[in-house]
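Q: May I have one protein plus its fold?
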Amino acid sequence: MSRQFLKYSFVALVIAVLSGCANVRWSHPTPSPELLQAAAKDIYGIYYEKEYTAKTVEMATQEAFDQIMHSKPDATTRGVMRVARLENGNLYIEGYSTKMYAIGLSFPEHYARYNIPDKPTLGYFYSYEGKITGVGFQTPHMIMSSDSRSSMVLRTSTQSPYKIRLHYQDNTSVDFDFLSTTISTRLGGGFKRNLRSSFDGLLSINYDIYSDTFAIEGPYNR
């Protein structure tokens, strides 16, 4: 096999791969009606926050939810979420979570954005009301078709701030409103995260491959 043949074969392979990526990148599909129907059926209800080692989402009772929401949290308190449809048709979510990264609190500078103490935490209570305006894929340029079982974004028009009450291990707490972020390109290369002045109404919908179900995870963090 000649060196020239290998060279042209490699070039052809690269072109084919790039063409395939371009087709996906420029297609930008939106979720199909069937996919939207499945997600709409799954997201409402009361369920525990999924543990790192768990394969499926565990449903919770109203009694268990009320017990957590009306008690002072400690290190054993489980995360839980209730997603409801109000009489006015709006979406309402509330719950308790131990996942700091879900609200963008992973490093000291993240706490500084909100001017709140950076010290050991237990978890946080949250609540939000919004009017559903649409659904899309989180990364549409990477989606092959409208029926792809992938993570989605629920778009809502904010009817309230995304309220947070953060509890620390020293028995103190602090209230603040979650603020969304945008991503911009840095001059000279790289990316920069910019804090908005309010919550943009985007909620992350996660797909669980083990149970073939969708669940709201919280605000969509870029």
